[in-house]
Amino acid sequence: MPELLPLDALSKTKRLHILTPPEIDDLFSHPQLTDDERTRLFELNQEEQKILVSRISIAAKVDAIIRLGYFKKNNSFSRLTCKRPQTMSIM
Questions:
Q1: Among 29, 43, 51, which Cα is nearest to 72's?
Q2: The pTM is what?
Q3: In a domain, 43, yes or no
């Protein structure tokens, strides 16, 4: 017979809590990088530099480079969401 989970593992919403808050942060928070890590992860080799000369928008190029760096760090892809800045008025 499988071992039953304790009742306190269920919240008031009756959802099972499998990961602890620190584990959730490790998986889903923005990585904190040192300068050395940042240089190593976002330095593009000759093959990766083809992104820079491709015919895609600058935003798509930046997105691709960020995703590539994230993949180099975690060996997995993440859903990245970025809100576009509001229109700025210049005085």
A1: 43
A2: 0.55
A3: yes
